[in-house]
From TrEMBL:
The name this protein goes by in its record: NADP-dependent glyceraldehyde-3-phosphate dehydrogenase
GO MF term set: oxidoreductase activity, acting on the aldehyde or oxo group of donors, NAD or NADP as acceptor
Keyword Oxidoreductase: yes
Family matches, as Gene3D superfamilies: Aldehyde Dehydrogenase, Chain A, domain 1 (3.40.605.10), Aldehyde Dehydrogenase, Chain A, domain 2 (3.40.309.10)
The Aldehyde dehydrogenase domain, residue ranges: 62-506
Family membership: Belongs to the aldehyde dehydrogenase family.
Origin superkingdom: Bacteria
Database matches in CDD domains: ALDH_F11_NP-GAPDH (cd07082)
Keywords: Oxidoreductase
Length: 542
């Protein structure tokens, strides 16, 4: 069905004076960044930050100016790197040699200070990336929970390491030690949560952090700069602002980065790794592209499938790496499924992030609406249709979801990760077709299988567990719970993240060993008894 505008859509953007006061934020013109434990003043170039929320004007809707941030250059970036390197000091610095209990106390102080900024950060998430009030609140609270879970996981890890082991005449204590300087770069879609799922475990394990702020969601971190400054030793966390192509290249080329923690595209990740002069020394923890498929068979409960596919495809406008970005539906039920799907999409309320029950909000990326239109036009030129009324309607930063059917392998929507509110639906006859898609795909993060037939589900589970990292049965693809491993195959990830796995990813096992002699036993007992070493310890952290 062709897109058409209705009065409803022309009411998306409101005059600024009609926006409730409790959701407004003052313009923030940030003129400082965190360097070596100080908030250093900045008087150079700045980058203006605009909201996806538009304000009606005589010239049409215009993105609201939220403020500006420093646009530092290569010289300042290298100063930030040097501060990070100095704080780590080849593993001899205050932070990497601090006891586990000491690092935990610093992290607990950070959480306390972070919670004080809860309301302003939630408002900034709504304005900067267009995330709904409910989802912005959930992102903040989930991040706090994640930090607390990480603290508990480290306590458990330390308790397991607090005893000596003996084998073949050798006694040893095995603990996990930091890796060095970590360059942490994250995405705009979860500018708090996803970045912290790498930054926090990397930090608490004793690494020093070079924190490159995301392009969208950058101001949401401004209220936390003082918390980082107050909670951790000098140089432990340092922030980077500016164009990644200008400031990250010299940082990587220096060879001083030990770990790359990056969430974004595989193309960018590959380029960053190649810049490092000694790639064998660089550990990479990457969460990258995904084109997660849903498979709806003729034996599926269609109401369950539609509900979960809507959540999977359109939560935060489909701007999630774990979003369902391609739906295979068996031809026997394709008509019934697409009818239910289009009805469900039509019932979704568009609006501004703080409005009650709103589901579809403006998009932060300026180039996203024209790209989505290009994908839809390509599909239509090759035989597909937009099934839902107003599907693909676009005004400024707002784009209403489009259900596109039937999609085939000749279309961009079949192969490219749209990362937005477009739902491509692919009809299939044989169950081998979605399996073949996954075999040939460049990505391998997750799949969702919808069927009530045990034998059919079994025959899909066995091939897919070797093609993707997570198989979801009758539910959407998702990251959580955070205690579960989160990774991917092919171009989708490198390394594994979960509350526990992340601690391992950002550390290495180190041990102190000695021959079992009376002299050595007395020596080790004295060190442990007198608490002369932070590494050799049998203390139990409660």
């Amino acid at each position: 069905m062709e897109s058409s505008s209705t009065p409803l859509f022309h009411e998306i953007f409101k005059p600024y004076n009609e926006i409730p006061e409790e959701y407004k934020v003052p313009e923030i013109h940030q003129r400082e960044y965190l360097l070596n434990g100080e908030l250093v003043a900045w008087s150079g170039d700045v980058q203006e930050i605009y909201s996806p929320v538009c304000i009606p004007t005589e010239n049409g809707p215009q993105r609201k100016l939220l403020g500006s941030v420093p646009n530092i250059g290569p010289k300042e970036a290298m100063e930030v790197l040097d501060a990070c390197v100095k704080a780590y000091d080849n593993g001899l610095g205050e932070w990497p040699t601090m006891s586990v209990e000491g690092r935990i106390k610093c992290m607990q102080k950070f959480v306390y200070l972070m919670i004080q900024q809860r309301d302003v950060i939630i408002r900034l998430l709504m304005w900067e990336i267009g995330k709904t009030l409910g989802d912005s609140t959930k992102e903040f609270d989930r991040t706090v929970d994640y930090i607390n879970q990480t603290i508990d996981a480290l306590k458990d890890l330390d308790r397991e390491s607090s005893r000596f082991q003996q084998a073949e005449g050798t006694i040893a204590q095995i603990r996990r030690a930091p890796l060095g300087v970590v360059l942490s770069m994250g995405p705009f879609n979860y500018p708090l949560n996803e970045i912290f799922t790498t930054l926090i475990p990397a930090l608490i394990m004793g690494n020093t952090i070079l924190f490159k702020l995301p392009k969208h969601g950058v101001l949401a971190h401004y209220p936390l700069l003082n918390a980082f400054k107050e909670a951790f030793p000098k140089g432990t966390v340092n922030t980077l602002y500016g164009k990644g192509s200008e400031i990250i290249t010299p940082i990587m080329e220096s060879g001083k980065v030990n770990v790359l923690a990056f969430i974004g595209s595989s193309k960018v990740a590959n380029g960053l790794k190649k810049l490092h002069p000694k790639v064998n020394r660089l550990r990479a923890i990457l969460s990258l592209d995904a084109k997660n498929a849903a498979i709806v068979t003729k034996n599926a409960n269609l109401d369950v499938a539609v509900n979960e596919c809507i959540l999977g495809s359109l939560s935060f406008n489909g701007q999630r790496c774990t979003a369902l970005k391609l739906i295979f539906v068996q031809k026997d039920v394709a008509e019934a499924f697409t009818q239910k799907l289009t009805a469900a999409v039509a019932a979704m309320k568009p609006g501004l992030p703080w409005e009650k029950d709103v589901k579809i909000t403006p998009l932060p990326e300026v180039n996203k609406p024209p790209y989505l239109k290009e994908c839809i036009d390509d599909a239509k030129s090759k035989g597909a249709k937009v099934l839902n009324e107003n599907g693909g309607f676009n005004e400024a930063s707002f784009f209403f979801p489009a259900v596109v059917y039937p999609v085939n392998s000749d279309m961009k929507l079949y192969h490219e990760e749209q990362f937005g509110p477009v739902i491509p639906v692919v009809p299939f006859e044989s169950i081998d077709e979605p399996i073949e898609y996954q075999v040939n795909a460049d990505h391998g993060m997750q799949v969702s299988i919808f069927s009530e037939d045990p034998l059919e589900v079994s025959k899909l589970i066995d091939p897919f567990v070797n093609l993707v990292s997570r198989v979801n049965i009758n539910c959407q693809a998702q990251r959580g719970p955070d205690v579960f491993p989160f990774t991917g195959r092919k171009d989708s990830a490198e390394g594994t993240l979960s509350v526990f796995d992340a601690l391992r990813s950002f550390s290495i096992r180190s041990l102190v060993a000695a021959k079992v002699t009376e002299s050595n036993k007395n020596l080790l007992n004295t060190i442990v008894r007198d608490h002369d070493s932070n590494f050799l310890s049998t203390d139990y952290i409660f």
